[in-house]
Amino acid sequence: MKVKMLSRNPDNYVRETKLDIQRVPRNYDPTLHPFEVPREYVRALNATKLERVFAKPFLASLDGHRDGVNCLAKHPKSLATVLSGACDGEVKIWNLTERKCIRTIQAHEGFVRGICTRFCGTSFFTVGDDKTVKQWKMNGPGYGEEEEPLHTILGKTVYTGIDHHWKDPAFATCGQQVDIWDEQRTSPVSSMNWGFDSISSVKFNPIETFLLGSCASDRNIVLYDMRQATPLKKVILDMRTNTICWNPMEAFIFTAANEDYNLYTFDMRALDAPVMVHMDHVSAVLDVDYSPTGKEFVSASFDKSIRIFPVDKSQSREVYHTKRMQHVICVKWTSDSKYIMCGSDEMNIRLWKANASEKLGVLTSREKSANDYNQKLKEKFQHHPHVKRIARHRHLPKSIYSQIQEQRIMKEARRRKEMNRRKHSKPGSVPIVSERKKHVVAVVK
Amino acid sequence: METAPKPGGSVPPKKGRLPAMRKKPRRYWEEEATSPAAGPPRKKTRTLEPGPTRRKSANGPKPRNQRKPGGRKAAQRRKPEQTLSGAQDPFPGPAPARVDAARKFCRIDRSEKLPRAKRKTRSKLEAAEAQEEEASARAARSELLLAEEPGFLEGEDGEDTAKILQTDIVEAVDIASAAKHFDLNLRQFGPYRLNYSRTGRHLALGGHRGHVAALDWVTKKLMCEINVMEAVRDIQFLHSEALFAVAQNRWLYIYDNQGIELHCIRRCDRVTQLEFLPFHFLLATASETGFLTYLDVSVGKIVTALNARAGRLSVMAQNPYNAVIHLGHSNGTVSLWSPAMKEPLAKILCHRGGVRAVAVDSTGTYMATSGLDHQLKIFDLRGTFQPLSARTLPQGAGHLAFSQRGLLAAGVGDVVNIWAGQGKASPPSLEQPYLTHRLSGHVHGLQFCPFEDVLGVGHSGGITSMLVPGAAEPNFDGLENNPYRSRKQRQEWEVKALLEKVPAELICLDPRALAQVDVVTLEQQKKERIERLGYDPDAKAAFQPKPKQKGRSSTASLVKRKKKVMDQEHRDKVRQSLEQKQQQQKQEKAKPTGVRPSALDRFIQVY
Known about the structure:
The structure holds two protein chains of two kinds.
Chain A: E1 2-4, H1 36-53, E2 58-63, E3 69-74, E4 81-86, E5 90-95, E6 100-106, E7 112-117, E8 123-128, E9 132-137, E10 151-154, E11 161-164, E12 170-174, E13 178-182, E14 190-192, E15 199-204, E16 211-216, E17 220-225, E18 231-237, E19 241-246, E20 253-258, E21 262-267, E22 276-279, E23 285-290, E24 296-301, E25 306-310, E26 318-320, E27 328-333, E28 339-344, E29 348-353, H2 365-380, H3 385-392, H4 398-423, H5 435-438, E30 440-444
Helix pairs in contact in A: 1-2, 1-3
Chain B: H1 28-34, H2 72-77, H3 99-105, H4 119-141, E1 152-154, H5 166-172, H6 175-178, E2 182-185, E3 192-196, E4 202-207, E5 211-216, E6 221-227, E7 232-237, E8 243-248, E9 251-256, E10 261-269, E11 271-277, E12 282-287, E13 291-296, E14 301-307, E15 315-318, E16 325-328, E17 333-337, E18 346-349, E19 355-360, E20 366-371, E21 375-380, E22 387-392, E23 399-402, E24 408-412, E25 415-419, E26 435-438, E27 443-448, E28 454-459, E29 462-467, H7 487-499, H8 519-533, H9 555-590
Antiparallel strand pairs in B: 2-29, 3-4, 4-5, 5-6, 7-8, 8-9, 9-10, 11-12, 12-13, 13-14, 15-16, 16-17, 17-18, 19-20, 20-21, 21-22, 23-24, 24-25, 25-26, 27-28, 28-29
Helix pairs in contact in B: 3-4
């Protein structure tokens, strides 16, 4: 007879002293871990609930402006510095770590229409309603010196926007036409014009640095090449585009914030239909900014909320609002991709977390791995109805909520009408137009 | 045996020599896998080791996962690569896992096709599958690190292990193991029911005449001992050893480990059998009144009370794989229940007389039943519920229990018989018992102790703890059921277990169904969407020829191009349908014709 009994030595399974950590032998045999999937599902559900519990995105409000904040600019070199221009011509420079204003300049008479920093971070440019372009030093004046711009250019017409080239000492302004300026000269290097309407914003492409896009009040978006004397092409939409933003990772993708409550992501190589229509806002979209990863962007709207959209999704993943925040005019995503700033009508700049439930500060390795695990679980079970319902739920102010309902009814009515028309007319005479193609009127080259 | 060449000390290969000339390095377990004769000499007829040459019995069902990971592709990858220095990696490629280990961890059935989906979704599904496969391959490879080996009992040449007495085993094994064999002489309050806690450390026993005790049976330390002055029908530990439920004459009671009565649950009356579903925190009770009641012990609410409509319920078992409750009835059927359904999930006709005992093994694959017709049957629970093997016992078994490694114990009168199979995931073969033991009284309760080679038997003369080498899983998981856990660890485990309590509605026959694509609902949703929109948004648009260069875009040429594409599509469709037909014909032909058709076939009645 040969016999062997299972006989464990407890010394191998119990810690030696109280100072040791407990021994945890593992065996991954599936029969020892039954209900793998249901337990993971419950974990995913719990993780989703906790995400909603910890979703506290609002960080700080920077107050000090004496009129609505009209424009914001990031510092290219310092994460803590941010510049803002107000409707009374005042420019403030803020320190985000201290959440304090470190410098105030009375830059213009009337609105500060646009503000942008130079790529090296030593100076910045502002344009205002007083038909001037001013260049300022980033550092304040020395003791006894007066606060004065480095250069002032007096133009013929009002400038409504400005953007600096990402590598060269050149910048572009817009107003009646798009002007490209050399920093050293007081007259534009070139002026480009297509139609006779006021242009509301101009943006340089961060990758293909000679390209720039602008949007005008005659409903079109025009693309230019700085090296040419004439514009490249333009696309005409249903309604006016307020501003555009280029994707910092994909050179040919840009997103336009439109008056018809939608955002359109275009591929500049094929403008006849947008790549994606982002529709969740219930009022005109005023500003848009990409995250530095190029995967998401944030939009500011007249409906007193800001929303975060994934680039490839038509619905927003997040909406931020507070009781006191009025119409949001400008929004920026910080360069570390962790925070969002928005400037609104009621003179405040607000700082938000880009990921609402993220824990700030240094995470321990256990926290990090638990976070990763939860993230993966949420991703795995995201399509289950309970998980989806909890993950999608957002509290909305009554005004936005009721407007969403109203617009849903309107959209449904339109769809029903079209369906009825199609039903009662000759087959093929009422074509099915996809949502993407509906809003593009024409493309001109 | 060939030894693997050392990576550092080997001479660099000569230039002219072909790499194919070199003998492929082998790992020691590969050697084992190819030549079973080369293994240690103790491979005999009835070993419990999962032998590498294990074969499924011919009538047995095919395993769910037939595919062997690391097949041909892995072999191709394992060609030695030459580096610049001329040194060769003696073990190129990923470390291979043993085939049976890999099969154990395999979760994905590659024979099942993925549901039809758009390309993006499909690639996502494929990526998820690949990840899962990678994870199971890694888990299979980590099998190597397990510390303990399972026990075994082998006779000398021709010796029958069933004839080996417990006293012989006790003499042969080490002192620590010998101490696990004991008899509690409790003639006064017998017959006894018993239950081990999930870690296998604690034992609760309840005598029919009211004696209830809980003890740490390893150290033989008594936790509590009371007399409830009432008949005790069954006893069951709840999720930890701190609580246990006792089915008494009238009502169900819950005690803590000091014997203090915590709850008296009057909604569960005249309970005969108790089962605890640890991951759902449900206590399932079967009563004389014919109700199967699920009590959620974490919140103290009754989840459902199901009327089995089959009279008195006295036979119950749980399937540890999917938490389905099996009830045996007096008409010979076994019905499968989940709290989510008012009707049984399945009914299996098992015996001609009533069912006396039911047990389900830990993988949820096999069910053993015994009936009043003195039969002992093993059923396959995957799909068809067909009996795999049957055996008539002279008296018929009144109690059945499966061990973690698939041993089947049956209490026949005052004798306990134990049958063993070929390793863990195979059914026990009923021809020859592996062990037998005669007790001093009739068997009243049976349970294998988890993680110990011990079978606890409650009988009219008290409690016997039998030694059954090879019964238990040798390697426990410290985060799941740790017999050596401290109080702090237990508390932490309890919180985590409560946090991931699985809702009762999720109990169904296939617990993995939750992770599969719900094609039916998807199609329903799609249909509704098409109805709402008035057109199919995902439909392929009709071909519209693009306008070509000047002069070549006449109406006639456009029509011609359009027609060409349409014809091509049509041809493809025809070809596909033809191929399908051919395949069907082939399959029909390939079906075994069996005996040659005869003229007398016409007299066979087809029902």
